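ligand=AHM
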Amino acid sequence: MNRTVTLDEFIIQRQKDFPYASGELTGLLRDIGVAAKIVNREVNKAGLVNILGVSGAENKTGDTVQKLDIFANDKLIDCLKNSGECCGIASEENETFIPIPSIESKNAKYVVVFDPLDGSSNIDVNVSVGTIFGIYRRKSDSKGECQLEDFLQKGTELVAAGYVIYGTSTILVYSTGRGVNGFTLDPSIGEFCLSHRDIKIPDRGNYYSVNQGYYLKFDIEMRRYIDYCSDLNLRLRYIGSMVSDIHRILLQGGIFLYPNTRKYPLGKLRLIYECNPLGFIVEQAGGKAITCQLERILELEPKELHQRATIAIGSPAMVDEMKAFVERYSVPSVTNNGVS
Ligand code: AHM
Ligand code: MG
């Protein structure tokens, strides 16, 4: 019988792949694992206590904030502040980043970005939600507080990224740039155990994932591509929790789309908290992640913490096909000087 490998054991084993590693990243990943277990405990008992529902506040980008969002946000911030392994945090739920004083962070060289509870509109109806995170090496001088520039880094600079899904089982998937591995929480021992070793996304799959309710609000090329997916009899799956939709695609193949709409001309999803970490994971598994305007997600230059992006992400052959549709059917934009 194969021996169970826990997340902690795996992270420590992997540290040996980086001969000059100081252990900080290892510690940070372990702390995120601990925070995930705490959030998982609360998500699982959400129906039993009075933390379901809307808190009454709105976050920076105008979304209604659910109570569990606040709980998850607070827990992640607490765990990371106490870890002493990172010098700053930026969360989708906070307007600005949170520097961790150097006394507590011991001049740590990493910053962490996260969406504490993605898909939060699903909480009240017992559908999967998840946490998404990314880790960057700071760029500013390590003697002072971290700065905005430490968070406004391209996805190509990610040192590690991952997500946790609180679903039928709780699973943590992460990558440090050497492949992708998944760990399922065994509640009987309270440990994440290696369950999905070296995940590779299929070249293509049977699923497409898009909010088809917005069909008429998409550009013509996107509508043509969606029609094509439907003509191929692909199965439409849309949970409304990006992290869960992408998890299915990572394991079984397919494409996830969130194009620009009239309401969200720049896309809805956040580049720093959602698109970059998930783009990093999917690329590490052999997939692709581009905007609906065909730029590679990880190469976008973030200008602000809550910047949004359009996204097409998933199996490489399917993202390439989507790209071909956009190139073929997009209507050239008309400028003052004529057609661009
Ligand atoms: P959230 O982070 O506030 O929960 O919002 C992000 C979510 C994604 O998980 C999901 O794919 C998308 O919003 C759903 O949006 P829509 O309802 O417009 O399809
Ligand atoms: Mg989200």
